[in-house]
């Protein structure tokens, strides 16, 4: 049998094998640790994190806006919506106002608006315009349109004759001089009131006529009982009277149906002056025609008044917008 060769201490091929096994054992020991994996991933995430975005330098060194600046920049925001979007801020609800303000502040903070909007004089001009408009516009009544009576204040020079409430102030402010053109709502209300009055008068007339007829029948019946007293109720004579009354009633209906009598007016039989009747019909026709024409003219005047009011309000709004734009142009270009 061949003899096996014993290993010598100077043999070198086994040294790298031991080093490789040692490195693989060290690597497998570290790879099985979950904490080591987390440390490596955390180190990767720390290296890949992007730097924070720098704030944009706004024109005129304007500041960044947020929700708390709404009341301060409200006039400028209102002018922005009116000029750029043709939208009135007072016509929007709270939710839409918040959305519009968020979009405005986003564009403001990114510096995407025109340079003139960041000018401090623009904000000052907008605030002055809003204040002057509020001072010039009349304040609407909050509760009702009835005149308010202001209580008199006691002064040192007041005499004994000064007593009672002060004269109404709202009527003197809002009421104009002379008659005004009625509106469509006024005409509609007037026609409804007229129709209600006519219906009420007709119903009252029918009720009065029905009551008078009932009273007259009762009076005739009482007089007939006085002239011809009736028999005792339940007696044979009373039964015969009822039978005779029924027979006479049926006979009268039968005679009226068979005779064919027709009630004709005396003017139709004897003739009447046709000229007077024709004149009366003509007057009635003219009166109805005049009433229709008057109603048409009233409706036309009411519509013209409403159209003129809307046109005046639009012109006033356009003139204020043009004045605002002229002020901006004058401040920027002199």
Automatic annotation (TrEMBL):
Signal peptide: none annotated. Residues 128-140 have a biased composition (Polar residues). Residues 261-275 have a biased composition (Acidic residues). Transmembrane segments: none annotated. Residues 1-63, 128-320 are annotated as: Disordered. Residues 1-21, 183-246, 276-320 have a biased composition (Basic and acidic residues). Residues 22-33 have a biased composition (Basic residues). InterPro entries: SCI-1-like. This is RNA helicase-like protein. It comes from Plenodomus tracheiphilus IPT5. The lineage of its organism: Eukaryota, Fungi, Dikarya, Ascomycota, Pezizomycotina.
């Amino acid at each position: 049998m061949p003899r096996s060769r014993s290993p010598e201490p100077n043999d070198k091929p086994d040294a790298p094998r031991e080093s490789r096994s040692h490195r693989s054992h060290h690597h497998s020991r570290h790879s099985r640790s979950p904490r080591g994996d987390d440390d490596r991933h955390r180190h990767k995430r720390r290296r890949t994190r992007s730097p924070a975005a720098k704030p944009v330098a706004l024109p005129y060194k304007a500041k960044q806006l947020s929700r708390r600046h709404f009341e301060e920049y409200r006039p400028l925001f209102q002018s922005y919506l009116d000029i750029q979007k043709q939208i009135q801020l007072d016509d929007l609800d709270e939710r839409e106002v918040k959305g519009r303000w968020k979009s405005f502040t986003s564009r403001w903070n990114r510096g995407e608006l025109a340079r003139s909007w960041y000018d401090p004089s623009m904000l000052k001009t907008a605030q002055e315009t809003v204040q002057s408009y509020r001072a010039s516009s009349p304040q609407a009544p909050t509760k009702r349109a009835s005149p308010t009576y202001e209580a008199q204040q006691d002064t040192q020079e007041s005499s004994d004759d000064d007593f009672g409430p002060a004269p109404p102030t709202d009527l003197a402010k809002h009421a104009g001089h002379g008659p005004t053109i009625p509106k469509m709502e006024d005409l509609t209300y007037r026609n409804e009131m007229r129709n209600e009055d006519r219906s009420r008068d007709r119903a009252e007339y029918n009720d009065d006529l029905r009551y008078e007829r009932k009273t007259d029948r009762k009076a005739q019946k009482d007089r007939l009982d006085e002239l011809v007293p009736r028999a005792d109720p339940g007696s044979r004579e009373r039964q015969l009277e009822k039978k005779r009354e029924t027979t006479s009633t049926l006979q009268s209906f039968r005679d009226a149906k068979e005779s064919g009598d027709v009630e004709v007016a005396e003017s139709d039989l004897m003739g009447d002056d046709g000229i007077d009747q024709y004149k009366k019909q003509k007057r009635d026709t003219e009166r109805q025609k005049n009433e229709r024409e008057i109603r048409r003219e009233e409706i036309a005047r009411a519509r013209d008044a409403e159209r003129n009011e809307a046109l005046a309000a639009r012109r006033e709004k356009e003139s204020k917008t043009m004045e605002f734009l002229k002020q901006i142009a004058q401040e920027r270009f002199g």
